[in-house]
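Continuing the batch. This is chain 6 of the set; chains 1 through 5 are on the previous pages. Same settings as before, nothing changed between runs. Recording input and output for traceability.
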Amino acid sequence: MKKMVGFTFLAVLLASFSMALAGTGPVAAGGAMYPEVVIYSTPWCASCKAAMEYLAKNDIPFVKKDVTVDGSYMEELQTRYRSSAVPLIVIGRDEKVLKGFVLEAFQKAYREVVAKRSRSRD
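Output for chain 6:
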């Protein structure tokens, strides 16, 4: 029985890690190896909504910065990222900045940041 419980735990752990690397599953609590995701958005932006739905569905924690609610978010978007278009998605500490939401581009960028962090921990 102990072997079965151990095997099940290992299988779940490996599956979670694989999904996180692929940008399609749970992210470790604390986010030490997994990057923070910030999305600058507006309520009427369809691409913003699609991005946030994808992140939520795949258990990827993110910070939503609605530029219509807080003027400092728009100022940050314009000065720091030289953009006024949403969505703008920041992965990690400015490790990847994506203008717009294209699923494949997000997944690739997220995987690259996770892999870079993984290598730096070795």
